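Me: Here is a favour to ask of a fellow structure person. Could you put it straight underneath, so I can go through it closely?

Assistant:
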Amino acid sequence: MSIEVKPPAERLYGRARGHKLRPRQEWLLDTILPRLAFTDPATPRAAFPAGIDQLWFEVGFGGGEHSLALAAAHPKAGLIACEVFDNGICSLLSRLVPEGHDDAPLPGNLRLWTDDARIILRDLPDASLDKLFLMFPDPWPKSRHAKRRFVHPEQIKLVARVLKQGGEWRIASDDPTYQAWVTEVLAAQDIFVGAPVTARPEGWPPTRYEAKAIRAGRQPMYWSVTRT
């Protein structure tokens, strides 16, 4: 495969809403989401008043199980989790606030960003992130859609700017086209170093996308690359 370097798309996702939301989901978006919303990229640590030791960011949290597992396992890491799809956002919120438990406490180390990840990454201070997660993103497998892939030659510098030296970027994918793309994009740069493995590393929470891929016979690949 040879990388065709076209500028990234204006936005990296399709429609932000699938089927019609139920009243409970609408309530979660109207009532709970504002309490977790991340709003000020210029001072990201201020969003975590209890104080944090590290600042992490997840691109596209899907159903939210990975973000929630990270937040629960690392209470001193402030996690900004990004997702644009209402159904995924509602999935995470419903895990936090199950029906009948409307007063459930919310994690103090989790904040949500519900717009394109690149908007916040452009506005965060230099070297503000310790870790960035990209777990099983939409592979956009057709070549004409490659510009929608988050891993993109022109976005390597965007990620590098916000990650501290020695910071970690985790990537996972089960799609052969995306795996080949990530391999080639990373091989063509010298800002991040690291090689993929085919077994989920220790400390990486599982996701439903990973489980679905394995059931279907697809082999995930996992990258942990370090900012030089």
